[in-house]
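User:
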Amino acid sequence: MNSGRFLLRMLLTLAPAPAAGQNGAMEPLSPPIVIAHRGASGERPEHTLAAYQLAIDGGADVIEPDLVPTRDDVLVARHENEIGGTTDVADHPEFARRRTTKRIDGEAVTGWFTEDFTLAELKTLRARERIPALRPRNAAYDGRYEVPTLVEIIALAKARGVGIYPETKHPTYFAGIGHPTDRLLVDQLHAAGWTGPDAPVFIQSFEVANLRRIAGWTRLRLIQLMAATGAPADGTQPSYAAMASPAGLRAVADYAWGIGPDKAMLAGGALVRDAHAAGLRVHPWTFRAENQFLAPAYRRGDDPAGHGDLAGEIAAALRLGIDGFFTDFPLIGAAARGVSK
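Assistant: Predicted structure:
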């Protein structure tokens, strides 16, 4: 059995989903799971099958696709529905007129949007590195890979024995323009045979109303994402800070299995302790090797693109009792987890 399959079995054995209203305090999950954030996105252009495959080879237990819809309602993996920065769409004159400005979650965004392309049209594009100034080696792979569909990602996960961790992007926005992405996601996961809390699936969202809605459709595990600042775009909560309070976490436990907080929220360990007391697992995001993304104590040198002590930052978080973590560098993450035992 390969390491991914072994750790996935450990995950499913040790982490049953607690029933709503029955969450008791819990011990940290052992071993904590390594979640490949958009694949091995520190080493290949994000959200490509190549990035996911490399992540699995590196020891990831779970791969994470951010999901957005095409015009014909096929879910595909992109960080955002605006794809000017992650594909070569600007190099396609046949799509020049589709560049436009839309208002998404209260902000004006200009570019090309997945919901304006059919899947067939989107498949003519090729992925590009999103942050080439920080990851120039990834840019060497520009133009090689297609935009993958959720169906393709599910097939890869099943073939390699790992889980998936899909994020519903901008669910209120998409529902408002006639693309019911939450329903599409649940239906596809169920069609894949993943229906219960023992399935290797976590559904995540920064919004609240859609997770509550999804909780009525499925028994799959749900993760409430939290940012260090701001509030959910659906306006259901005053702030993420309020949601991260002991009372807020108890409310989250009514519908979610766990939380995915910004790693900046871990300081001191109170959030981990309070979440566990509410019966919630904790999967912080995102651990990256570049100095620009590391906490100051783990940076090495002044170059924002230079790599610092990512393993040290992950090890410090593991000592707080987290149950898993998102990383762009799953090979480093898996090694750090092993050392921290």
